[in-house]
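User: quick one - fold this with 6-O-phosphono-beta-D-glucopyranose bound?
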Amino acid sequence: MSKIEFPQNFLWGSATASYQAEGAYKEDGKGISIWDVYTHIEGNSKNNSNGDVASDHYHKYKEDIKHMKECGQNSYRFSISWPRILPEGRGKINPKGIEFYKNMINECLKNDIKPFVTIYHWDLPQSLQDIGGWENKETAYAFRDFSKILYEELGDKVELWVTFNEPRFFIYSGYLIGNYPPSYNDPQKTIQASYNVMLANAFAIEEFRKSNAKGKIGLVHSFSPVYAISDSKEDRIALRNADNYFNNWVLDTAVKGEFPQDLVDKLNRNYDLSFMNKEDLEIIKNNTVDFIGLNYYARALVKAYTIGETVLKVNNSGKAKQGSSKIVVKDWFEMVADPKSKFTDWDTEIYPRGLYDGIMMVKERYDNIPIYITENGIGMVEKMVSGKIDDSPRIEFLKLHLIEIHNALSSGADVRGYYVWSTFDLYSWVNGYEKRYGLMYVDYENNNKRIPKKSYHWYKDVINSNGSILED
Ligand code: BG6
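Assistant: Sure. Structure tokens for the protein plus 6-O-phosphono-beta-D-glucopyranose:
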């Protein structure tokens, strides 16, 4: 076996998102986001939890960055809260919001940590939801203007930008499954919102190219490499359908500037696509990404659709509902759980090999485009024992995935960085606070005290050894 060694300039980091980490939801002039509204409605999230305080990163960011530094991390991926910058989504800027992110970025730079900025990680200003949210093209224009402000204010210091975190995930959850705001089950709205998000992505890239911001811009995708259970004709058709459903409408559109034609044709048979127009498609064509961020949690294993209505059931409860997830998209495909695989309490398959295969798929399809693994991690219920957190399963999980990344590098893929999800425990959206992902434990009962987990120390050794301890 070849020695494990990562490239010289490889970025070793971890990631968070504003709503999940910051808290301070009404502080210093911040406006209200759709998540603030949604989680304050009883029954919408586990134990009626919300991100009002979250991990209190707003007040503890210096301490958090210090921990990253001590771990050897040289990059930090975080997102900007849109309503912190523009409380109403458009118009008047909140100077305190700008100041907060400037301080965060300066603190990173002071510690030789490269800031990796996500412009949108789901906390849409409520005022924009009030005009129709992502269904309304006005929101795409507002996003363009928001991105422009960020390039002007932060563009001299940030070299890595992404427009959106996971269009597929937040759109499907919000518009098709209905377990995220704005909580619809409506394919027509899903298609319209998806289109507007990809248009907004292109607008923001167009603004980036016009601005004086340095660096590169990409998009982060919730990547589910698709496998079929057999090579039969029916299963291969299901594979293509599932690939369009999970991946291609985001990746093809972001990288090649075109929605997959077979997907458009299929949708056109049942839905109204009259909102698609030449000018928009030209903007999408002319404004593509410099790189792709892949968030990898699991693959999608599929077979041919057999019978019945569409079912989109996700398990946001953990162990109590283990095995309850089910995805069938009528006339498209059915998802299958491999009986040989291991799954988390939330039904996420543990399948490290999918990361290798997925990176290689992206490499082949998109001409060896630069890739960052912008999220990878495992959610677990964890308890502190004698002041310590032994999260050995997380170490095993991260180790196996890092080995697959190294394998992909050895096969010629251009992977430039890796970000553990998450830097510290944070609010896992509707799953609440029990589902922890952090390298650092957050003691929510005790002033959000940070305590390094076993995985934090392990990650430090991985970084220090430039990966060679992964061989042990
Ligand atoms: C990604 C998101 O989909 O997965 C994160 O970018 C999210 O925001 C992470 O927290 C894990 O998902 P969950 O639902 O378990 O928190």
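One thing worth noting: The CA atoms of residues 11 and 417 lie 4 Å apart.
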